[in-house]
From TrEMBL:
<dbReference type="InterPro" id="IPR056003">
    <property type="entry name" value="CT398_CC_hairpin"/>
</dbReference>
<feature type="domain" description="C4-type zinc ribbon">
    <location>
        <begin position="205"/>
        <end position="239"/>
    </location>
</feature>
<feature type="domain" description="CT398-like coiled coil hairpin">
    <location>
        <begin position="14"/>
        <end position="194"/>
    </location>
</feature>
<dbReference type="Pfam" id="PF02591">
    <property type="entry name" value="Zn_ribbon_9"/>
</dbReference>
<protein>
    <recommendedName>
        <fullName>C4-type zinc ribbon domain-containing protein</fullName>
    </recommendedName>
</protein>
<dbReference type="Pfam" id="PF24481">
    <property type="entry name" value="CT398_CC"/>
</dbReference>
<keyword id="KW-0175">Coiled coil</keyword>
<dbReference type="InterPro" id="IPR003743">
    <property type="entry name" value="Zf-RING_7"/>
</dbReference>
<dbReference type="InterPro" id="IPR052376">
    <property type="entry name" value="Oxidative_Scav/Glycosyltrans"/>
</dbReference>
<feature type="coiled-coil region">
    <location>
        <begin position="97"/>
        <end position="145"/>
    </location>
</feature>
Length: 247
């Protein structure tokens, strides 16, 4: 391929812009806020799972407490009815009186046992409520940290994106001034060689792979027409000759 020396030199300008874009992309992706947000989000997910579990437990305890209190109330009402019958004198048979008294005593014990259950459930519910309150506060705290880190990340990425947009516009202008076939070759090589498609030949050294050319390659480049597009035998990048090439 042949291309005017000025067009080949413009490849170096294009390469510099592409390097700057790659550096900006790397900085953008490497912002510490990304890892911070990821870590905090994992913590938030775990806390929310724990909060759901605690809320469910509190809800279950509430239903259990309501059921236990209803059982106590039913026993209390039945005992009250039996006591009323006993006090009214309507039961005259000694055996019936004995049975009624035994039932009242049994209901009293049953009521005591059920009240103990109510107390135990109330304690568990109170513990669950405290856990819900604690986890709710922790969720809010972590969410605030995420919001803060997100704000810092967005501010930083906005700056990078703005700078990248300006460089992209400049790149389009430079790329538009380079012949299509030369530009296509540059882009093809750049895609294969880690983002570097063209490199300066400086003091007989390829600035792309940092290797010095052997004497045969140097002589071939010396003998080549200034319009000839030469490539590095080591890395295949386009070698751009300048006054500093040492030829």
């Amino acid at each position: 391929m042949n291309a005017a020396p000025a067009d080949q030199i413009r490849l170096l300008d294009l390469q510099d812009l592409d390097v700057r874009l790659a550096q900006l992309a790397h900085k953008r992706a490497s912002l510490p806020e990304h890892a911070e947000i990821e870590s905090l989000t994992k913590d938030l997910t775990q806390l929310r799972d724990l909060l759901v579990a605690a809320t469910t437990e509190e809800s279950d305890c509430a239903r259990e407490q309501t059921k236990a209190e209803q059982d106590v109330d039913q026993v209390r009402q039945r005992a009250a009815r039996d006591q009323k019958r006993l006090d009214s004198g309507a039961v005259s048979s000694p055996k019936d009186l004995e049975n009624l008294q035994k039932e009242i005593a049994s209901l009293a014990k049953r009521q005591g046992d059920l009240e103990d259950v109510v107390l135990e459930v109330m304690e568990r519910r109170e513990s669950a409520q405290e856990r819900v309150a604690e986890l709710t506060e922790r969720v809010g705290s972590v969410q605030s940290k995420i919001d803060d880190a997100t704000g810092r990340r967005d501010a930083a990425t906005s700056e990078f994106d703005s700078e990248a947009a300006n460089i992209t516009k400049e790149r389009a202008l430079v790329a538009g001034s380079i012949p299509a076939d030369l530009l296509a070759l540059y882009d093809k090589v750049r895609a294969k060689q880690g983002g570097v498609g063209a490199a300066k030949l400086h003091q007989r050294r390829c600035e792309g792979c940092r290797l010095e050319l052997d004497i045969t390659e140097v002589n071939d480049i010396k003998a080549a027409s200034p319009d000839k597009v030469v490539r590095c035998e080591n890395c295949s990048r386009i070698l751009v000759r300048t006054s500093e090439s040492g030829l």
